[in-house]
Specification:
The protein is an alpha+beta fold. 18% of the residues lie in helices and 30% in strands. The longest helix is centred in the N-terminal third of the chain and has 46 residues, at 21-66.
Length: 370
């Protein structure tokens, strides 16, 4: 039998080799570099995710305020959002989460009114990101907090005015760039990546502009050097009416129920709207239209013809209608009191429900008076 002779121990040790110290140092250096790059990439990815999350929440905020008129319900643009239900912009973010105004007063509950009108708080318009003690919060992607008693804006820079809304997140360091520039933190702020700094970069960045949530009716921007004609009627609202007279079975060729074509009525228009969640009747009333420096109410002739009537609103300031539901009523002008009266012309009740959508520049009310 053949037997295998074991290799001498001395020979085996002599032929085997290990890593030198230099090789070990090179390996450790490579692994350290890979680990550093991995950590850096993870940090960059985390910052990007928080920045992107803040963008997403800003867009949700915008839709909560304005709604989404691109969605259709029974072929009509859907009316939704805080402005539609309340009739104004939110004064603080908490109004989108809780049925209380910024001053603590309760909003009225959502209610169906007359003339297809509806209004009142029917939120929450945003899904809360945090539950903090006794209140819900909607934070940015970094989870920034405001001051010790910030139950209204939850760490966002939220600036609301009658002309629009500006919103900003303070980024990874929770410090505004203005504060950083005026203090010793400016160096550390500049070292932040683009995904860690304030977003948007300017606190004047507009989330909602004045023409996105309301329709301009009368503009007082000076367009002439003559002060008395400086105002400009935009024509945001027009009324097109046709008087349809109900004749008898044996109509008279002479009259057939028609009012004399010379019988014109001085009219005015009132608009009922949602204000702070409640219906306010005759919220806006038209005034005489200036023609050749003379004020004269709009005339409506009961003669069976189609007429387009134009009205002016407001006195000395721009006049707007917020997006949402409204209804207009055509009334007789009270010449004695020189104001809009409260009676309909003749036997005709002329009123029109209508809606204003985001981005509208002209609303035409069309109807048949029978």
């Amino acid at each position: 039998m053949l037997s295998r002779c074991p290799m001498p121990l001395k020979t085996s040790l002599k032929n085997s080799q290990g890593f030198t110290l230099l090789e070990l140092l090179i390996v450790v250096s490579i692994l350290s570099s890979i680990a550093y790059l991995a950590v850096d990439n993870v940090a960059e990815s985390d910052s990007f995710n928080k920045w992107q999350r803040s963008q997403y929440r800003l867009e949700n905020m915008r839709q909560a305020i304005l709604g989404d008129s691109s969605r259709l319900v029974n072929g009509q643009s859907e009316l939704s959002g805080f402005v539609v239900d309340i009739g104004r912009l939110p004064g603080c973010l908490s109004e989108l989460l809780e049925a209380k105004q910024c001053d603590g007063i309760d909003f009225p509950a959502f209610t169906l009114f007359e003339e297809q009108m509806a209004g009142g708080w029917r939120g929450p318009y945003l899904s809360a990101t945090h539950r903090l003690g006794d209140y819900d919060a909607y934070r940015d992607g970094w989870g920034n907090k405001g001051d010790s008693d910030d139950k209204q804006n939850f760490g966002w820079v939220f600036q609301s005015s009658p002309t629009g809304v500006n919103v900003q997140t303070l980024g990874a360091d929770a410090i505004s760039v203005a504060t950083a520039l005026s203090s010793a933190t400016v160096t550390s702020y500049e070292q932040l990546s683009d995904y860690e700094k304030d977003y948007p970069k300017s606190d004047r960045q507009t989330l909602i502009s004045e023409h996105e949530f309301q329709l301009l009716l009368t503009d007082y921007t000076a367009e002439s050097i003559i002060p008395v004609v400086a105002e400009s009627y935009i024509g945001g609202l027009q009324v097109a009416l046709t008087v349809q007279v109900n004749c008898t079975e044996t109509p008279s060729e002479v009259i057939c129920g028609l009012v004399d074509s010379e019988n014109s009525i001085k009219t005015c228009l009132t608009i009922s709207s949602i204000v702070d969640g409640a219906l306010v009747k005759d919220h806006i009333k038209s005034r005489p239209v200036k023609e050749a420096l003379l004020e004269d109410p709009t005339k409506f002739t009961l003669n069976g013809t189609k007429q387009t009537l134009s009205f002016k609103f407001g006195e000395g300031e721009d006049t707007y209608l917020p997006i949402g539901r409204h209804y207009a009523a055509l009334l007789v002008w009270d010449s004695t009191g020189n104001k809009c009266g409260d009676s309909y012309p003749g036997e005709y009740e002329i009123h029109f429900p209508f809606t204003v959508l985001a981005g509208n520049r002209l609303v035409t009310l069309q109807g048949v008076v029978k």
